[in-house]
Request: fold
Amino acid sequence: MFLFYLLIAVLPLEQHWFWRYELLGSFNVLKALATVCLILALWRTFTGDFGGRLLRTSPARWYLAFVVVQVASYFVPGRELPVAGVTYWNVFGITALFIVTLTLVTSRLRLHWALLAAIGGAAFASLYTIRGQQAGSAVPGFRPSGVFEDANYYALVVGLWIPLAFVWAFSKRSRWERRFCTGSLLVMLLGTTFAASRGGVFGLAAALLFMIWHSRRRVRNLMLVSAAMVPLLVFAPNSPLRRLLQPTHGDEEAKDA
Reply:
């Protein structure tokens, strides 16, 4: 399971020099780690009673049906798919991760550690975004992306884990877990502010409001979220709030694109 936790933690680091180091052609270190995890998952599937997990739930069945439709669309005549190779490699990669996760994560404890690894990986990637802001702060309108190709991609990834880190930082857990989640939360919030993704802020706001509405202490959680996010949105030099209210020419071009 250590290899699986490591894979989850380093998935946001796809553009890192070590994990993208090519071993053979385009086969890099990250793909090698993912391949090993897939082999272990397939071995467990064929040697144990884990194959049924892939079809046990309705979302899993719908997802596999969606994959079948995606693959079948490749054979539809008259379709021009200029990026078909990249597209279907992405489909294969996501499906492989789906199989690996359902096969290896077989208990609440393993799910717990997998989620902690995901939070830690997103926080570690945020350190590169913060460092990018330090290096490019002199450039007007600069938006760091860290180890991602684009600042919006970064905001998308960390936006998945900020709500969970917030919940765990203020829940009844061990002291080290609450400290770990609190530190990860602060780093991700700061990185998200520097990335200044307008779409990322909308997605994060929707996720946080959904989480607050379904929490037991709504008023307290709303105040905590506001205290953490509002100063960053208002006083940051290139905040997403400013890009929404006072878009530059580049912001307008990005919106049109």
Q: What stands out?
A: The mean pLDDT is 84. The chain is about 70% helix and 0% strand.
